[in-house]
């Protein structure tokens, strides 16, 4: 029941927005802003025609695969570096200004540079996604590890827990609320960079398909691509919320107990 209620909360606003769009575009004659009815009319043929060779399978799989690999690599790298930096005050003093500098550089401006040495294949797109996802996860991991209660760490040391065991059983779980907040930010950035990198140079992917529709002046089909990207973002958000609720069950329970007391 709780899951159903959460799903209703998530879907309510998109439903209102789609209804508003349908009503206000019903009699549109503008070639650039066709009616939602016309857009949805070409939707099945555009994305589902062809079975396993349809655009939703071929281009959707390409985009999701690049996003999943880039995001996973960024998470792995950020957790490793963030834990090492967060545990050492000296490392933080040396690294944090540099990390802030690199974080301030928008990843999209690096796409032309990265394509010079990484080519225009999947490697370039995965690298761009990884680079964009890295900074929010890394900085949140550093901050989360730094904020772990020193009394808990000293207590763990007094029980002769080895460093790896302390990281696994105490530090990472204690820092997990902030780490997961960083992962959520990183996922949003990753979706944006997935589309941008596919728009620059690609032969498949959702971003590539949207640009192809725009160049061929197939504007209703182009709008269907934007809807597909929105649905992908919504699905990714719901999936991440399930992961977040499972991973932070202890934290949410602790907060609920604190509110009830």
Automatic annotation (TrEMBL):
Do you know which Gene3D superfamilies this protein is assigned to?
MetI-like
Q: Which InterPro entries match?
A: MetI-like, MetI-like_sf
- What are the ABC transmembrane type-1 domain coordinates in residue numbering? 64-244
What's in the GO CC field?
plasma membrane
Q: Which UniProt keywords apply?
A: Cell membrane, Membrane, Transmembrane, Transmembrane helix, Transport
Bilayer topology = Multi-pass membrane protein
Which coarse location class describes where this protein primarily resides?
Answer: membrane
**GO terms classed as biological process:** transmembrane transport
List the transmembrane segments: 7-27, 64-89, 101-120, 126-142, 187-210, 222-243
Q: In its keyword annotation, does this UniProt entry include Oxidoreductase?
A: no
A Pfam family that this protein carries is: BPD_transp_1
Q: Where in the cell is it found?
A: Cell membrane
Record's family? Belongs to the binding-protein-dependent transport system permease family.
Protein name (Swiss-Prot/TrEMBL): ABC transporter permease subunit
Q: Which organism is it from?
A: Arthrobacter gengyunqii
